[in-house]
Specification:
Blueprint lengths: L5 H31 L6 H6 L5 H36 L3 H26 L11 H21 L3 H10 L1 H21 L12 E7 L18 H7 L3 E2 L3 E2 L5 H10 L3 H4 L18 H7 L3 E6 L15 E3 L7 H7 L3 H6 L4 H5 L15 H14 L6 E7 L28 H23 L6 E6 L14 E2 L21 H4 E2 L1 E6 L14 E2 L3 H8 L27 E4 L15 H8 L3 E3 L5 E3 L4 H6 L3 E4 L3 E8 L2 E8 L4 E4 L12 H12 L4 H10 L1
Parallel strand pairs: 1-6, 1-7, 3-11, 4-5, 4-6, 8-18
Antiparallel strand pairs: 2-10, 3-9, 7-10, 12-15, 13-14, 15-16, 16-17, 17-18
């Protein structure tokens, strides 16, 4: 006997579909509208470039198709579950439609609750009493599922399976035999000491040196890092050439400053970068190294194989990633992030710290371990890894449940969310060291630990003070990174070297001096006994006795791209920043978000520049329409107006800093050139 006519059955189907798709559709439309209005850093650039970039169009189309497919498959699966329930319990025709609507409405409440419980950072629709709906929904589905299983004729099912047993056995044998061979050979570490040491660079984003180690009565956030650094040479004071990820990594890999290699900003046009063929991965590749690079966010650092890497492990790079990481925040998609299908369906969000709602740090560690294990152990390895978790917004999938050591000595230095991210990254660091050890990559190796820049927080900052209130300057904000070259919390970074194996000197034999991230490449080449002149490097090998690297040394740092909306001292308003910054970007033919070349002169006029010696600093600070020059006492956080205060010129280090500053930046900036002419 039929329960419903065909038309009634179709009406029930479409009613259930409306209930299932209503919330995702409303949320998706609202997010796109928000992106197109006051949140739109990327959407205007994306839509304007669709006719120029097939990559962008395909990325958006692929995301849309995957999003639709996932929701349709989920709905059809639940619809068939509902039909099975109806066949089992045969509700009255007059009640079935009502029960159907109630079931699918309750299922939506269950999904929303489950999403809130598993992904606390999700911005999707909230629901009251998520624990109630999660528990009751799980119980309801579980009970219905068990009742349906009880109605299955298992005897007939097993009979059919036994008839096909020989087919399954053959398939399993074909798959298992080679898989077993691969498993037996995978991850077997070689204990033989290679003639060429492995070179491992490990970057920890935004990590401040003062957050490493504990104090009396206060535990450390970084126990794994502490133990490793205890046997390393650790720089006392190192500066980043530019406190942003991409420019600093260009300096790390090239041994040159941004004004030399051309990487002056994140998301700069790659054609403006010079000397890629002579950077560290390309040079080491010529000497037989396998070169590999891994990072868990490519939003602002678009490093790929074209920079000299044979192997890369990154989220998919593209301008649409800015849009999709937030638009893809939907319960069904979030739940799918725990499956192997997520990488295939949503490559821009997979393993991407920018999609912090679903980002799981252990996934990146697992994939990184797999990449290391798959590389030929007989060849020397150059591996550059960068962990992005300590970068804003200092959040990930289960950040709320992460237990962070109560480091009382850091209470007045940074917010708890930043400390938690540092602690979780320390655990990622330990997993990487374990993987390197297990795969024989630490028997003969050079390991460099670094941070690309620091981080400051307006509520915890202590700005420098003027030596004379009469000549005070308008200082840039002491917050975030890349926006203030005189803020040492932004420019001071971690730099340490540890060597393994008898072919290398002990790490503690290195001489301590003022250093920069440009010193990493020459240090590696010096330890490998390779000629440094192949890269035209400006940096100094910390192992060398080069006179230019002594105590009179001067290093350089500059600011990155910033807009006024970044400087809200109470809260970082991402929407306001995006709205102000959107005009500067476009999508190129490769689907990458880049700064428009037409704005480069304007941005360069706003760029801060600094020369730094052991105790002093000379800086150019264009800020709020003012062109200011500052001479600062680093140790005592005092500064003088370099234009009006004359006393600084009598300082013994002043002449050296002044000459170095003018040599580096006079060609780079007309304002600096004029200053040098006035005081030269």
């Amino acid at each position: 006997m039929k329960i419903f006519s065909a038309s009634g059955h179709r009406f029930e189907f479409f009613s259930a579909a409306m209930v299932s798709f209503a919330l995702p559709l409303v949320e998706l439309v609202s997010k796109f509208i928000a992106k197109a209005t006051n949140e739109g850093k990327v959407l205007p650039s994306v839509t304007a470039s669709l006719h120029d970039s097939n990559v962008t169009l395909l990325g958006l189309l692929g995301f849309a198709l995957a999003l639709v497919a996932v929701h349709i498959v989920f709905f059809l699966a639940t619809w068939h579950f509902w039909l099975a329930v109806c066949r089992r319990f045969t509700p009255r025709p007059g009640h079935r439609l009502i029960l159907c609507l109630l079931f699918f409405a309750y299922l939506q409440a269950y999904l929303l609750s489950l999403n809130m419980m598993l992904f606390p950072e999700s911005s999707f629709f909230a629901i009251a009493s998520p624990a109630f709906f999660t528990c009751s929904g799980t119980l309801l589905i579980g009970v219905l599922g068990l009742l349906l299983l009880a109605s299955v004729n298992f005897k007939a099912w097993f009979t059919r399976l036994s008839q096909m047993r020989w087919k399954y056995t053959a398939v399993v044998a074909v798959i298992a035999l080679p898989a077993g061979v691969l498993w037996q050979n995978a991850g077997v570490a070689t204990t033989e000491e290679k003639a060429q040491p492995d070179v491992i660079l490990i970057g920890l984003d935004s990590l401040r040196p003062d957050h490493i180690g504990g104090s009396v009565g206060s535990p450390s956030l970084t126990p794994a890092l502490d133990g490793f650094l205890a046997q390393s040479w650790v720089a006392e004071r190192t500066y980043t050439p530019l406190a942003r990820t991409f420019p600093s990594w260009m300096s790390i890999l090239s041994g040159r400053y941004p004004f030399e290699h051309g990487g002056r900003y994140n998301l700069i046009d790659p054609q403006l970068i010079n000397g890629l063929e002579a950077n560290l991965p390309n040079v080491l590749r010529q000497h037989g190294y396998t070169t590999a690079y891994a990072i868990d966010e490519t939003r602002f650092s678009n490093i790929d194989g074209s920079y000299g890497f044979d192997r890369t492990l990154t989220p998919k790079i593209g301008g649409v990633e800015f849009l999709l990481t937030s638009v893809g925040d939907m319960p069904v998609v979030n739940l799918l992030s725990r499956s192997v299908l997520y990488d295939f369906l949503f490559p821009y969000q997979y393993m991407n710290r920018a999609a912090h709602v679903v980002y799981d740090p252990s996934l990146f560690s697992t994939r990184l371990d797999g990449m290391i294990e798959s590389i030929d152990p007989q060849r020397p390895l150059f591996l550059a890894v960068h962990f992005e978790l300590p970068h804003w917004p200092y959040s990930w999938r289960d950040a709320e449940t992460h237990e962070t050591p109560a480091s009382t000595h850091l209470i007045e230095r940074s917010p708890p969310s930043y400390q938690a991210a540092v602690n979780r990254t320390d655990q990622q660091f330990q997993l990487l060291v374990d993987s390197l050890q297990r795969n024989g990559r630490l028997s003969n190796a050079i390991v460099v630990i670094l941070s690309d820049h620091g981080e400051n927080f307006s509520l915890y900052a202590t700005p420098a003070k003027p030596a004379s209130n009469e000549h005070a300057l308008i200082l840039p904000p002491y917050m975030m990174h890349g926006v203030n070259v005189i803020d040492e919390k932004q420019t001071n970074v971690v730099f340490a070297v540890r060597t393994f194996g008898s072919l290398l000197p002990a790490s503690n034999q290195f001489e301590a001096r003022l250093t920069s991230l440009v010193d990493i490449a020459p240090t590696v080449l010096d330890l490998l006994q390779l000629p440094p002149n192949t890269m035209s490097m400006t940096g100094c090998a910390i192992t060398s006795q080069n006179p230019s690297c002594n105590s009179d040394r001067v290093v350089f740092s500059e600011s990155g791209f910033y807009v006024d909306a970044m400087f809200n001292k109470t809260i970082f308003d991402e929407k306001a920043v995006a709205a102000e910054a959107q005009q500067y970007y476009e999508i190129d033919e490769n689907g990458r978000l880049v700064i428009k070349n037409e704005f480069m002169d304007e941005l360069m006029d706003k760029k801060q520049r600094a020369a730094i010696s052991e105790n002093w600093m000379l800086a150019y600070l264009p800020f709020e329409g003012r062109k200011q020059f500052l001479f600062g006492d680093i140790r005592n956080s005092l500064y003088w107006n370099a234009e009006l205060d004359k006393a600084w010129r009598n300082n013994p280090e002043a002449t050296n800093i002044f000459q170095s500053f003018c040599k580096a930046y006079a060609v780079d900036s007309k304002d600096v050139a004029d200053f040098c002419m006035r005081h030269g």
